[in-house]
Write a structure and sequence with these properties.
The protein is of the alpha+beta class. 47% of the residues lie in helices and 16% in strands. The strands form four sheets. Strands 9-4-11-10 form a four-stranded antiparallel sheet. A four-stranded antiparallel sheet has the order 5-8-7-6, with helices on both faces. Helix 1 crosses helix 2.
């Protein structure tokens, strides 16, 4: 069933690492194709926009059946985006720099998690984070404006259980999509303990750097030489502007208390020990440098964490404690407040497809989850947490075989689709009225598309 795809461009570019990578790999191609294929009001749709949308829709696969029809549907979604942007401009929607920076920070953090590190992101994009921010700043602003227009149109829309059932029943049975085999996992994490002697040694090193800076050494030089934060060290420790809530509380409390040029005492966070230098305040945001040192964990402490998990697994298998209770009692990870569920960073949910498990569960040793049954638990698995190497037990909570979508197993998915469909109808009705009052020009080679709306004003 063909349908218009409402595509928010910033989501396209920042939502999935493989699309960003594909876009980088096709830079030369896009430069050739980057012509204007439509104008809506004063806003242009470029061919590169459509190609990026098409790459996401097709996951960058080779030959796509009915490629022209797919592109036409995506093209119509982009036209609707530009129409909503045009309306936002008419309504004088104001987007502040703080809103743009906040959204940009969220997207950058998401991509860094997806790639594994800031260095990997920069290597794949062939640009520094600063260049990525500058490249997509205007696109983020447009995306926020489009989102605000969409929110005005559909923010109060909801669906009832009957709406969901009607939507499901309206889909021909032979057109129901197939849901891939899916898994849900929970975990018990043990973080190896750092000895007090090692902590004191790290703090002494940082205090030594602090004394050198106070006596005239450049903070940025020492950060480049000694900081163990790879993302900021090569920039002299500079973190860029951030707001309250963007950093862990201990770090931001110390940072926001500083005056320009002032250097904090040594502070401890979950990532290690830091000294911070204030660079500049700008409204509710600040820019700082920091030097991070991470205490080293001994092989003995690593072995102790693994042995502890072995004992916990044995207790679970002997029926002395349930996995769920063990999560609450023993896990050192924040996921313990959510029964230890592992969250998929690509969909913000708790489900993982079979083929994507080892790619989407961060820093996971290769495990044949396909051979595991529901309720089975792995042996202690080594992984790199945000702070350091650690071990965890992983339980297969649920294993759902591949199947056609149905209301029993997939109600949430069907509900989401039903809501999207209802919102799309509202947007289409609004767009049809706005089209008649808006200047629109479409390139001749795209006028053969079977549009759902009267963009050609026939």
């Amino acid at each position: 069933m063909r349908r218009i795809c409402i595509v928010l461009l910033a989501v396209l570019i920042f939502g999935f690492g493989d699309i960003a990578c594909s876009q980088t790999e096709n830079t030369d191609k896009f430069q050739t194709l980057d012509r204007v294929i439509a104008v809506v009001g004063q806003n242009m749709v470029k061919e590169s926009d459509l190609e990026t949308s098409f790459l996401q829709q097709t996951s960058g696969s080779g030959i796509v059946e009915n490629a022209f029809d797919v592109k036409c549907d995506l093209f119509e979604g982009l036209l609707i985006n530009k129409l909503m942007l045009h309306q936002a401009e008419i309504d004088s929607v104001n987007v502040t720099e703080e809103e743009v920076n906040r959204e940009m920070d969220n997207r950058i953090k998401y991509m860094i998690r997806a790639y594994g590190s800031e260095a990997m992101l920069e290597r794949q994009m062939k640009k520094s984070v600063a260049e990525i921010r500058e490249l997509y700043k205007d696109l983020i602003r447009e995306n926020i404006m489009i989102s605000q227009t969409e929110q005005k149109l559909t923010g109060n829309i909801s669906v009832t259980p009957q709406d969901v059932a009607d939507f499901y029943n309206s889909i021909p049975k032979d057109s129901l999509p197939i849901v891939e085999e899916e898994y849900m996992f929970s975990q018990i994490v043990k973080l190896p303990k750092v000895t007090e002697e090692e902590k004191e040694a790290v703090k002494a090193r940082l205090n030594g750097y602090r004394d050198r800076i106070l006596k005239g050494s450049k903070f940025s030089t020492l950060a480049t030489l000694y900081s163990e934060d790879p993302g900021s060290a090569k920039k002299g420790g500079e973190l860029g502007f951030f707001s309250r809530g963007d950093m862990v509380s201990e770090f931001e409390n110390a940072a926001f208390a500083l005056q320009d040029g002032e250097i904090s005492p040594v502070i401890e966070t979950q990532y290690g020990f830091h000294i911070i230098q204030m660079i500049e305040r700008r409204g509710n945001q600040i820019n700082c440098r920091h030097i991070l040192l991470q205490p080293k964990i001994s092989d003995q402490q690593m072995g102790k964490a693994k042995a502890e998990l072995d004992s916990i697994k044995q207790m679970i298998e002997q029926g002395k404690i349930s996995f769920e209770d063990a999560v609450i009692e023993f896990s050192d990870d924040d996921s313990k407040i959510n029964q230890g569920l592992i969250i998929n960073p690509y969909n913000a949910g708790a489900t993982f497809t079979k083929d994507a498990i080892n790619e989407t569960i961060g820093n996971l040793e290769k495990i044949d989850f396909n051979a595991m049954k529901e309720g089975e638990i792995t042996n202690p698995v080594l992984f790199k947490s945000e702070a350091a190497n650690a071990y965890r037990l992983i339980k297969v909570v649920k294993k759902t075989p591949s199947h056609k979508v149905n209301l029993t197993d997939d109600y949430g998915k069907v509900q989401e689709s039903a809501l999207s469909d209802k919102k799309l109808e509202i947007i289409k009705q609004w767009a049809e009225k706005r089209i008649a009052k808006t200047y629109i020009k479409i390139a001749p080679d795209y006028q053969n598309c079977d549009f759902k709306l009267n963009w050609l004003k026939k």
